[in-house]
Amino acid sequence: MSVKSFSWPIRVYWEDTDGGGVVFYANYLKYMERARTEWLRALGFHQRRLQSEQGIMFVVTSLSVNYIQPAQLDDELVVISEMPEVGGASFSFRQRIVRKDTPGVMLLTSDVAAACLDATTRKPRRMPRELRALLQP
């Protein structure tokens, strides 16, 4: 697994779709959130533990999404996440979603900005040194 890039598989289920069998637009945000969470988990950082043991949490501060092609019921997708920028208390993600069988065809691209907050005060706080060290170039 690369620290700079992470891929997470997703299958489209009935509850993810609208009446026409197409993924409802907001569900792509859930797919991307799951991929970011699983990336942290794969690096050994569990969000619940970070909150209870280190008193921090991560939040999305801005998001832009380009919907290119629709995903449909039963599609196998891959969410590809990259982290182009890491600061002391903030970081960004570039995410894209492709079908597993046609990885060169983009369904969605997104830029996500996130911040590390103190879990009690909800004010910006530096990321743990060990996580920042893993993520920085």
Considering the chains and any ligands shown, give keywords for the structure.
137 residues; alpha+beta; Thiol Ester Dehydrase, Chain A; 5-stranded antiparallel β-sheet; 3 helices; 5 strands; 24% helix; elongated
Structure overview:
It is a single chain. This protein has 137 residues and is of the alpha+beta class. It has one domain: Hotdog Thioesterase (Thiol Ester Dehydrase, Chain A). 24% of the residues lie in helices and 42% in strands. The chain has helices spanning 25-42, 47-54, 129-135, and strands at residues 5-11, 56-67, 76-86, 90-99, 102-118. It has a 5-stranded antiparallel beta sheet with strand order 1-3-4-5-2. It is elongated and about 45 Å long. The two termini are 15 Å apart.
Structure in a nutshell:
The protein is of the alpha+beta class and 137 residues long. Helices cover 24% and strands 42% of the residues.
- The CATH H-level superfamily is Hotdog Thioesterase
Largest sheet: 5 strands, antiparallel
Q: What's the level 1 CATH class? A: Alpha Beta
CATH topology: Thiol Ester Dehydrase, Chain A
**Reading side by side through the largest sheet, how are the strands ordered?**
1-3-4-5-2
Second CATH tier, the architecture:
Roll
Q: How far apart are the first and last residues' alpha carbons, in Å?
A: 15 Å
Order of SSEs: EHHEEEEH
Overall tally of domains: 1
Q: SS-based structural class?
A: alpha+beta
Number of helices: 3
Give the overall shape, derived from the CA principal axes. elongated
Number of strands: 5
Q: Name the helicity range.
A: 10-25%
Average residue-wise pLDDT: 93
- Could you tell me the strand content as a percent range? 35-45%
